[in-house]
Amino acid sequence: MSALDILHAACDDPFAAARAARERGQRVVAYLGTSVPVELIRAGGAFALQLAGDPAVAAPASRVAASSALAADASTQPPLSATYLDDEFDGEIRSLFDQIGGGACNVADLIVIPRASNGLLYLYYSLLELRRLEPQRRFPDLLLYDVLNTPDWTTGQYVLDRTRALHAALKGSLDSVQAAITEANAVRRELHALNARRRAGRLLGSTWWNALRASRTLAPRDWLEAVRALPDEDAPAKRLLLKGYGQDTPVLYLQAESLGANVVADDHIGGERTAQALVDEDAEPLTALAGHYQRRVPTIRSWPQASEDAAWLALLEGSGAQGVLFYHEEFDDTFGWDHPQQTALLEARAVPHALLARQSYHAPDRGQQRAVLADLIERIAP
User: Fold this and answer.
1) SS3 state at 263
2) N or C: which end of the chain has fewer CB within 10 A?
3) pTM, rounded to two decimals
4) Distance (Å, rounded) from C-alpha 119 to C-alpha 135?
5) Structural domains of the chain, ranges and CATH numbers in brackets
6) 57, 362 contact by CB (below 8 A)
7) Cα angle vertex 43, ends 294, 170, to 5°?
């Protein structure tokens, strides 16, 4: 297989490497989001697997629709999220609830869920309630990592305490934690190098997406071997920044490429800023990890907003992006508060921008997305 084929395979079947590890007798610990110290999982000898939403798994629009379906045909079972979750839960959270509660993630022995957003916290409690209501269901044990992201000293002391507790639960010596930090930083540095190639027009945004996603489903050594063999690519000349809701597929990146533009920067949960900062290898390991995941990993709602705006504007300028595509998922209740100010910042800089509003997680209108992208790309000067 080529290096790109390896990355595609790791994204098409994100459980494959974890299954192989389990068959070798290795424990598998899954995690959600980007605020869990993956280094502690690996330090304890387990295979680390990030779980992500899967838009390909369809879900009814509401619990009312699910109830109607059950009434019409008792043998038809709607997704668990349609039965147990309120309609305002966003698509990724619903998908994760369906996958975990439905047993699709049973390759894992344990799932670590961070308290990095209300959605993830409510997912944790909803899964516990599902276990209480349907004890016959089998899915991995759950562990809450109570990480808080406000940049205060007192918060930092609490996060350090919770990080020590997570380390105790996952096992592993401090020496193994230090080694895992070094290994994870090697992955981050390679992502930086890939991103530099993307900025220089030598890597497609879709390849970047696959490389980033695969870094969270493959063992670090296997991933490093693959990405170091990636050849240069001829990327389109026009350059976009993608901002807003996290992307669980590379479809938007591929659409932009087919229309003559490359997504050279992304500012969304799960995007490049999650790998931007290195963990301090000279500090005490648990203190370094606590500080990193408290302060240096972007979350859905980071504070203060002025710092967040400065960070993404620096990303816009540093990437050389010529236009910005905003992406809003239909049940995302944070994006709308920030979007008006963000568009005002772009208009003051005469940067073309477009909005994909209220996008369905499971069934977005790809034709409408393509039309909005085409119009934005057309407005970018050659």
Assistant:
1) strand
2) C
3) 0.93
4) 23
5) 3-170 (3.40.50.11890)
6) yes
7) 75
